[in-house]
Amino acid sequence: MTPGEMLAVFGAGAGAGAVNAVVGSGTLITFPVLLATGLPPVTATVSNGLGLVPGSISAIIGYREELKGQGRRVLLLGTGAVLGGLTGAVLLLTLPASAFERIVPALVGIALVLVACQPLIAARVRRRRREGGSAHRDGGPLLFTGLTLASVYGGYFSAAQGIIYVSLMGMLLDETLQRLNAVKNVLAAVVNTVAAVLFLFFADFDWTAVLLIAAGSALGGLVGARTGRRFSPAVLRTLIVSVGTLALVHLVLH
């Protein structure tokens, strides 16, 4: 890897860490850069997953205030993230790269619609609670199952996984978007870490790429969290939908 390529990978890692902390889809920044350095697709995916772990952790630190009072929820949903992330990582190592090509754009598209409609969905959840409906404080089996399946995808590739997380939680939880974003960062970190542990033992990766992305994403995650926490719900939602739309276009065209 040339010095110029190393600088590009570090910069992509920083950008991905910042975007992941606020929205998700940071993989769409790092993955093409890694491919441009000559890494094979699976090696690039594995190296990217390993490198983004520090960025996920720094994003959690940046959003620690929004995580207060959500310990039980994080523990419950994190269990599903462990199972899903491990499954997705195994699939990455065993299935052809084209396995999810058709379903991924559909998942991202549906997630974007749900994020855009989150205020209406949240209002309906609140109304159901007032009327004594069956809305569950932590989303119930439906949310657990949905996030576990989303974590399977996250362990496999991870592009736009954060958007899918936020959309599902926004549909089933009566919480502010910033608090949902904080939980999203934890789930992404869990999936990335579980997948990383598996990759360390069973996959080929490039240590130079991993270390450069790790350094960049750790810095970017802190900056992204510090900036993202200041956004109003409307601005944050608009940013999520905008970045997600770009991700969707990228996935469809490639």
TrEMBL record:
The places in or outside the cell where this protein is found are: Cell membrane
Membrane-traversing stretches: 45-63, 75-97, 103-121, 142-166, 186-203, 210-228, 234-253
Gene Ontology cellular-component terms for this entry are: plasma membrane
- Enumerate the UniProt keywords alphabetically: Cell membrane, Membrane, Transmembrane, Transmembrane helix, Transport
* UniProt entry tagged with the keyword tRNA processing: no
What is its membrane topology? Multi-pass membrane protein
Q: Family, per the entry?
A: Belongs to the 4-toluene sulfonate uptake permease (TSUP) (TC 2.A.102) family.
What is the protein name for this chain?
Probable membrane transporter protein
Organism, per UniProt?
Streptomyces viridochromogenes (strain DSM 40736 / JCM 4977 / BCRC 1201 / Tue 494)
